[in-house]
Amino acid sequence: MMSQWYTVFKKEIIQQWHNKQLIWFPIVFILLAIMDPITFYFLPELLELTGGLPEGAIFEIPELQPEEALLMALEQLNTFGVLLLVLISMGTIARERSSLIGEMMFTKPIRPFQYVFAKWGAFVILTVLALTVGLLMNWYYVNILFGKLSFKTFSLLLMFYSLWFLFVLAIILFYNSFAKKQWYVALFTIVTLLGLTLINTLFNHYLPYFPNQLTSELQLLVTTGNISVELWGIAIILLIVSCCLLSSAAIIFKRIKI
Hints:
By secondary structure, the chain is mostly helical. The chain is built from 11 helices and no strands.
């Protein structure tokens, strides 16, 4: 059973290596994570290089705390990082439906659950790698430019924040299980994420354990150093919903096949 899972998992990892995703994807996450803090720190020099301010104008740059600089990375990753993840994974199953790869894979006794979870596992490795190096570089520059921030706080942030990306991956795999075209997967995923954001915006006071509350709870984690009950609750919900989505994807895929 594990050998079947490993067959698909290994194929995905090799494909990621051949496509250089294991190289350029983490590099992009590094750029997204460090761009805002470094730009903010060197903003006075950048203004001077671009001609400075008009004569007599006064522009005071507020002092940025280490915690705020670390959280800056989440803003970029929540937008561009998630979008990039959708784009590289939207065809992980849907693409194989329109090629001979899927048919070749099912000449072997590979079960749908193993097939779906192996693909998810391969993208988990890629995503967690990118998040780790990206946020680690952010933490490194934050300590140099803005002040000390404990590695414990960084580690907790990384652990909980990774759950959000694993949840997004589960959504992508769910739509991959029945969508026939890659762009349908991307469209459905983006609409789902926008819908979750809208629900959180309208009813956030009534939904303390809603997945989109994760960023707010991570801000409390970074500023206070304490893990709130709500953060634990959100983490558990993200894991449960992710498992349900992946299981549903495997069941749907078993019925539809290639």
